[in-house]
User: Fold this.
Amino acid sequence: MQNPSYRGSYKPFVSPRDPCPPITIKYFVLPPQIFTNFQQPGLPQNSPEEALMQGSLWPKFVDGFSREEGIS
Amino acid sequence: MWVYEKKLLYPVEVTTCNPMLARYLMEQYGGADGELAAALRYMNQRYTVPDKVIGLLTDISTEEFSHLEMLATMIYKLTKDATPEQLEKAGLGAHFVNHGHSLFYENAGGVPFTATYIQSKGDPIADLYEDIAAEEKARATYQWLIDISDDPGINDALRFLRERENIHSLRFREAVELLKDERDRKKVF
Ligand SMILES: [Fe+2]
Assistant:
């Protein structure tokens, strides 16, 4: 489960002499916690079972990460 | 004082004998941004931070030890039945002659753990900013481990561990906010 709003992207410089086929758009992670300075009370919570699976009691701070995203 | 529960924080499913993956996971076991470094860093810093954030460092340090235990389980299971030849192919030949099938605190490149990975500056803001950086670096390491591993059971546990780093980072940044609140506050002791 990945949330696209927690990713950034940019266009790297591409040289005609790049030895490997160039990647024209690079993606990087902007994890959810960096958009909160201090957690406000009363945020929606996962069920205990969901929280264990997700690694967080609050869905707001879960962004997920999978190799299928192709970030690296 | 600690109370030990004889189970893992999160279930770890290992279905393959994959010493190469074990070797990569050692980055989070005994590496600079790994769980051992995190646990020891916070456990030690907690004595000289303002009262308000001592508990946070204790709690997160304790949790990091439970993460360390998960990594140990993964590494052990991925290597326990590997032959010396298989270990050698995975780049663990030098590890094997020194440690046999046992685990050791070293990184994916075989560099042994050192206390120089961590710091305690005695300055709360300096220490907390180091802790925030450590959490983000651990998060990134988990990302690259997920990207290099094709084991779904391992990747599920790594995904869980990565999400924990998100929360730890936020908690440390909240600790900084708590300390900033102390600014210019007139206090009577
Ligand atoms: Fe952490």
Observations:
- The two ends of chain B are 30 Å apart (CA to CA).
- The CA atoms of residues 24 and 108 of chain B lie 5 Å apart.
